[in-house]
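Per-residue structure
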Amino acid sequence: MFSRWRSPVVLTGLCGVVAMVVAACGSGGTSAPSHPVLAKTDGGAFAATPVADLLQGGSYTVNVNKPDGLTGDVFYTTGFSAAVDLNKASGTAAQTPSENQTGIRADAPNGTPSGVRIMTKDGHLVWGWDAPNGQGTNNFRTQSLNGEPVLTWWVGSRLNGHGVGEDYIVDSHYHLIKTLTPGDGLSSDAHEFRLTPDGHALITSYKEITTDLSSVGGPKDGKMYDCVATVVDVATGNPLSHWDALQHVPITDSYQKYVPDQVWDPYHMNSIALDPSGNLLISLRHASTVLDVNPSTGTINWQLGGKQSSYRLADGAEFAFQHDAEMPSPDTVTLFNNNSDSGTAGGGLSSLEWIHLDPATHVATLVRNQTHPRNLVAGAMGNLQQIGNGDTFSGWGTAGHISEFGANGDLLYDVSLPGATYRAYFDSWQGTPDDTPNLQIDGTTGHAQWNGATAVRRWKVLSGTDTHHLTSTMTIPATGADSTFTLPKAGLQYQVQALDTTGAVIGTSACVPAV
């Protein structure tokens, strides 16, 4: 159904970072852990992950990094995504890639935790966090809340190609300041959590229902997932409206084959955005369609693609099983065209697509189609982000790449991942953690670490025969959250100080002995 807000919903509020540890010499040779603890007000708590553990979380291989690309940071997720179960849920077979075509990849190597990462473009970790065992993360990005930059992502459990969890909002001190769900008994799905300028959040959710599936070859009391697009007031956590796909889109519009003894997923809602008029732009992957929905009435204004498209798609404008539909202008739709259903045979290359809409003629024409030079096919996931100067940033989903393209289509930046990332985003980030730096010593190598401290430009290394008599030994450049150096001598006490652009000390580690 389409419904306005009905009743107050109590959401779990989160606030504050605890476990601030003051690093000082004379602490017995141990250093403070370089991570804040994100604490729930209900008493449950989970710690951000130590840098040493984050560095074990999979490779980030920079293939291309041209100087004419934009300056900033990369935001992506590691480990499993809810969408990785999609081919299992749909009953489809995995595609075998040809010699020059990268096909469907496993989501992550066995044992790789699911987490969120900020990386420099040259491949250095800036900040990261791994979810607790058994939990997944998705859709990590920067957004704006009350005029301030925040980090947002989803955490929860995967279930048949979607997620059951909640959405996090974290400030620049890495305080977990809010969690949200759609309310009214619904859990946040992994696919979409988008903040809007008016203080609202757009959240996807899935709910299992029993309904008549005889029109698609199923039973009259078959089980399926209905998809819901919810608008939530961020300040109060109250749901303002729910839009149910089943009430507006016939199940016969789905291209997803009904499989007996499974919960059918005819829609697979994977993105919600605002169009320039404030309507909801909703992507239904399994119907290969994008809907423009009036947020007040729930009425579908128009539909692009699928079996009931309001626009005729001209040659080249076709798309299938898409992700991340947005509308940067009143007559342009952008999307990630997977062109593949979780690895089924057929289809073509995945691509970034710009489509022009002519409301007078009801014709949709292709403006631009950007494929990857490695001929990638992403059976699931993926996104398109326009980042300025005509450049475009993209996560290639299950194909395991992150890329930046110039306005002329040149590949300016490209990364290979060991597994998938649901989306990837590009932005600048300034973070100031509440904890202190950490010094790790491994043999003759020292690691100056401070997870998320973006103001650090250099590290001063101090050493001495005891903790009360330290002198400066060297100064090294900072390389993200982990900067390494060679110890000049064993048998001494070592300490590191973080320096900003002016050379001022902004953080000091505990002393650590080198044996």
User: Anything to note?
Assistant: Confidence is low (pLDDT under 50) at residues 4-24, 26-46, 86-110. The CA atoms of residues 455 and 500 lie 6 Å apart. The longest helix spans residues 86-90.
